[in-house]
Amino acid sequence: MYTQLPQHQSRATSNAQRVYDHLLACVRTESPQEVLHRFQSLFLGTSGYQEPEIRQAVNAIVKSASKQEEFSLFFNRCCYILVNRWQTQLDCRYAIPNLIELLGQASCMPASLGRTQTTTRLRLLVKQFVKSAHFQRLRRFSDFINPRSATSAQQPLVTLLQRYPYLYKHCLVSQGDTQEHQQVVHQAQIQTQKRFELELSLYMTDILKRSARQSTSIIQTVGQPSTGRIIQPVYNPTLLSDSDLRSSLKHFVGKVDARNTHQDLAQHFLRRQGAAQSSYKHFKKDLYEYLVASVDTKFGQCRFNNQLHQCLQEMFPESNDRNMNDFLMVRTCQQVFNFLVIESRRQPKHWIFMDLINNIGSTSTISLLLKVVLLCKKVKPYLEKRFALLFSHYETHKQSTVQWLVHCFEKLNLAWCSQFGKFDYSYVSVL
To answer: Which residues are 279's β-sheet partners?
Structure first.
């Protein structure tokens, strides 16, 4: 059934659409410099705007916005109308950081200098927008579209975002973004994932070939003439050392207990649960044993095992006597990730995660998380969002100060490729 909007909401929607259509027409026909000048005049300037009806529409939106978020959603879309157009044209991409700089300057400008009440409120709303998560994502997207030419330990963590496609959706897209922007990010995620998987496969195949050549050269006669053929090197596509890359990938695809791979262990666990038709309480007991089997005994017995046991005990006690089901599986795995990684933006404590890394290392920590995902693939995006929260928490830190986190991001990339990518890395176990 069609429900008519209240009159004030209908007018606000109409005014917003008028501004959107106007900006879209401008960005299609004018240079980036002209559009930026328009944008500054319309939202930040003191002089009159060239089209009075558009100024009136913005003023009406400002007057009707009862909450900051209402205006932020409108203004965010205005920004992305420009950004989405410019990002498709290489010679216009420079304008995206210019827009970010323009908004950054607005945050330092005084809100009122004898202007009208509406203009003063507009300034205040824009200043609050610059402090919001919307602007944070916009700034990330600017760095994403215009990446720095080389990785440097002195650059902030945010400059590495392009390397981790599993973070794109959570770091570059918000609920109010246009379908066009979401599609841009989605396509970039697919392309980056494919490129990394291909580069990783080529690199590991090259290592296998080099290993075979070295074995052959040992039995060749000394003094045998060289063919003079120059072999083009294949570069390590990660930020890990060659040895760390090999050992990590080998851990993810090889046998972790001398008999079983990660996939084997997960399948054995699920089959046992299915055959037993266990209660939720029994499932949590088995899950505890499944997880601590991968944790160093000394560290586990010191504190971690008790912490994990307590966490599981407190999960949904009202369901202890119920039969296990898919809903409980998903919710339990999500709660385990909250415990092991980070709970939320409002509760960003992650000392258990850091404790794991400091005591069992980043490879084993990612391995522990992988074991949970292999039990319930539906929670893979939820884990990726936990990592996006960590990324947001540390994005302004220099890379040199958060190398432990960079290694985790790199190894999650490897884990996803090894388990969910299109290339087979089982041969890595013989290297």
So the answer is: 323
Task: Return per-residue pLDDT of the chain as tens, 431 residues.
Answer: 333 444 555 666 789 999 999 999 999 999 999 999 999 999 987 667 889 999 999 999 999 988 999 999 999 999 999 999 999 898 999 999 999 999 988 877 776 654 688 888 999 999 999 999 899 999 999 988 888 765 678 899 999 999 999 999 999 998 777 888 899 899 999 999 999 999 999 999 998 888 777 666 544 444 454 454 545 678 999 999 999 999 999 999 999 888 899 999 999 999 998 877 789 999 999 999 999 998 998 888 889 999 999 999 999 999 999 999 999 999 999 999 999 999 998 889 999 999 999 999 999 999 999 999 999 999 999 999 999 999 999 999 999 999 999 999 999 999 999 999 999 998 887 77
Query: What Cα–Cα distance (Å) separates residue 324 from each residue in 77, 162, 276, 278, 339?
Result: 44, 39, 10, 6, 21
